[in-house]
Amino acid sequence: MSLPKSTDAWVTKGTTGLDNLVLESxxxxxxxxxxxxxxxxxxxxxxxxxxxxxxxxxxxxxKDDVVAASDGAGEVVAVGxxxxxxxxxxxxxxxxxxGHQSGSISLASVATGLGGAIDGALRGHGVFPEHGLVxxxxxxxxxxxxxxxxxxxxxxNALYGLTPVKAGDxxxxxxxxxxSLFAVQFxxxxxxxxxxTTSSAAKVEILKKLGADHVINYxxxxxxxxxxxxxxxxxxxxxxxxxxxxxxxxAQSLKAVQFDGIIxxxxxxxxxxxxxxxxxxxxxxxxxxxGLLVGSKDMxxxxxxxxxxxxxxxxxxxxxxxxxxxxxxxxxxxxGKHVGKVCIKIE
Length: 347
Description:
Elements lengths: L5 E7 L8 E8 L7 E10 L2 H8 L10 E2 L3 E9 L11 E4 L12 H4 L14 E5 L3 E3 L6 H4 L2 H13 L9 E5 L3 H12 L3 E6 L2 H10 L3 E4 L6 H7 L7 E6 L6 H7 E9 L14 H5 L3 E4 L5 H13 L11 E2 L3 H9 L8 E3 L2
Parallel strand pairs: 9-10, 9-12, 10-11, 12-13, 13-14, 15-16
Antiparallel strand pairs: 1-2, 1-4, 3-5, 3-7, 3-16, 5-6, 6-8
Helix pairs in contact: 4-5, 7-8
């Protein structure tokens, strides 16, 4: 069977709104060179990043006319003559920053982000260098595997990238988005205690089912940072904060963190508040405030081993969209109707 020379793809065509996500038929595919792998995608998932790219608020390098979405999983349908890591039929997931193989991220690696700097996963087929793919965990299907690229790996990096979470540590998560729910699962697998925040009674039950030890409704308890600290033994605070709100939640995160704890800033989804912390607040708390951008291939492979060993299953929203419904899917996420990952089935 001959390999496809083109594919249908959802492409970014501007930064003025979600309507800039455009379906393009017959987008050319490059030839499979010696070190390349062709993937037939079966699943993709969306991130808040995809919204920010389309609306012009993404703070990192991007360019126009790029296939959208970084997160995809599929089947290897062809390999180049010098490929050693994969064979035809293997199940693989995409690596977010194709150049971030190990160690600390570099400025050059940031320019290799799928769906922003280079063509992403929201398409029927794609050609990638073998180092830009990772073997999927054997316990996951394609839709589940498509959630790992950003949300899973970001949560893993937050908990293991600087000072690894340990049994007995307290971890604070925010909300029920993909990163936060992965963080709950990874922290519990390590034997840590989890304090989670959310906005509704229905979501409280979801978090408790995943293993959260305490859940705080932040609408009922606006000063949830102090409440989280009170819930820790001796009121010392939490070791890790998974900070997804940014300017809208950072002040409360600083109230929750323990002496010499770590706040990992991975998002900016909350509305900014009047109460904005200063740099010296990190000194006053003697804590590390760390920005991170997903993680390396080495981290991805470590995470996948943990997912298999603990049979961790990603939390996927009950509504899975078809490929042709990609724009509806991103609107659904923008409207905040989801719990966990918003996924797209590609057939």
